[in-house]
Amino acid sequence: MHAYRSQTCAELNADNVGDSVRLSGWVHRVRDHGGVLFIDLRDHYGMTQLICDPDSPAFAEVEKVRAEWCIRIDGTVKARAPELVNAKIPTGEIEVFIREIEVLGHARELPLQVFGDQEYPEETRLRYRYLDLRREKMQDNMILRSDVVASIRKRMWDQKFREFQTPIITASSPEGARDFLVPSRLHPGKFYALPQAPQQFKQLLMVSGFDKYFQIAPCFRDEDPRADRSPTDFYQLDMEMSFVTQQDVFDTIQPVIGGIFEEFGGGRKVDQEWEQISYKDAALWYGSDKPDLRNPIKMQVVSDHFAGSGFAIFAKLLEQDGTEIRAIPAPTGGSRKFCDRMNAFAQKEGLPGMGYIFWRDQGEGMEAAGPLAKNIGPERTEAIRQQLGLGVGDAAFFLGGKPKAFESVAGRARNVIGEELGLTDKDRFAFAWIVDFPIYEKDEETGKIDFEHNPFSMPQGGMEALQGDPLEVLGYQYDLACNGYELVSGAIRNHKPEIMFKAFEIAGYGEDEVRKRFGGMVNAFQYGAPPHGGCAAGIDRIVMLLANEQNIREVILFPMNQRAEDLMMNAPSEPASDQLMELGLRVIPQD
Predict the structure, then answer these.
(1) In this structure, how many other beta carbons lie within 10 angstroms of the beta carbon of residue 296?
(2) Is the per-residue pLDDT at 322 higher than 70?
(3) What is the longest distance spanned by two Cα atoms in the chain?
(4) pTM of the entire structure?
(5) DSSP secondary-structure letter at 130?
(6) 573 exposed, middle or buried (CB, 10 Å; 0-12, 13-18, 19+)?
(7) Residues 554, 547: contact at Cβ < 8 Å?
(8) Which H, E and C letters describe 196-242, residue by residue?
(9) Which of 220, 255, 294, 468 is the most exposed place for a label (fewest CB within 10 A)?
(10) How far apart are the first and last CA of the chain?
(11) 105-113: long-range pairs with CB below 8 Å, 24+
């Protein structure tokens, strides 16, 4: 017999009754029923119930066993009485009578319990992550992650992509976040960087003649943490293709992502038609470039109804250039109580409040109620109601100003309204491509033009588009939104040096600076670069959605905390003085 086990803790069933077996695992739970000991033995695969009574030669040793001890037992498989069968687990028809026991690893008093569903502070869970990971939910999440990655790989290979590995130590390249720098011992005073993404390398692969590339790539960004973002590193499905249009990329990645959600979504509906929404429309309708389309609410511009109206705040606001009033329809939200709750929400977001109108039945017909309705009069309120398609029992909320100043709050308000009114379909994965991103933006204070989005995207219209107003230039850049999260980001690349130099010139970067920062890629593009494009999909976020988790740390094996600290491994740590000396570095104490 094997030194540790003849079967796993998920394999035994009624066919094994009478067999002598050897099992190893962790003590999940110990129960004493009148001198008869029951142990739930757990391994990675499942659970088996063990039984021991004073007739067993191992009884005295079994009595000493405690939760999370790692043990090996020899025993005989017995059938459970019919009324004691546990149909919830594969081994529920049997139990194993312990004849011999060996303690493979004792466990100290536990800082957190593996058995049960108790909640523990994040600090405790991350410090003792190896115990936290023993819990059933965490095991399930990590198995899901592994299975998702395996399925992604198979789907990419099936589409004739090849997997290549790109460097982890490379040159610093500004891509929208801070680099993690690595000092060079052989070149004192110089630094490598951990790649924020394999962006330049995958483009160089296309120049090298590899037609389809993918990689499950680690990426490193020194970012502020959020619930849906790791502060240090993450993994993405990185892909690139040559001789493709934007639609070719969509047609390639959609069956991969859609197939993953169908395979692992637990029966939740997966949208088959993924609409394409311009960045401009997404901002207008949803207040976000990653809208949650499970919520049917679409915001609309209603400025005309407030211009010159009796509501002085909005009327005066609209006299300023670049301002507008937007309405958030709220079907079934037509009560003063709900309107007051949303007003309080706006105040928590730092606004004075949110104007609202709600429509109620007064017996003799519909009436528009609320402070706004009184100020603008029945004719304007009726025009608003008809534009928004609302009726009795419905409401609308209003925000005004320069769109960039209030869009994000409006988007959050839309989400809250959808949640509170039960309009958001929780049993669905809703996808949309966000397209037509502007390449440039203007700083309102300095008037300086700079890149708003990816500087390596091909401008729509090529060189000709760069001759006009920079703020009108759109890029072949796209994101895939799902349930309020950005899952995929990509672009058709700017592969022509003359267009790239012009694009950077508009943003104030001379040719010399472009060559200095991106010399490898610029030089390569001078040797017959093909048109190419691709995207990257966030593995962590995909698994987070599939696992129905709200925090990305629930699907990462060993995550950092909110302060980018690894409490288990005590990182970051102070280097030894000889390490600093060897690297020619000195740490300057911070005041």
Answers:
(1) 12
(2) yes
(3) 93
(4) 0.93
(5) H
(6) exposed
(7) yes
(8) CCCHHHHHHHHHCCCCEEEEEEEEECECCCECCECCCEEEEEEEEEE
(9) 468
(10) 64
(11) 105/69, 105/70, 106/69, 107/66, 107/67, 107/68, 107/69, 107/70, 110/67, 110/68, 113/67
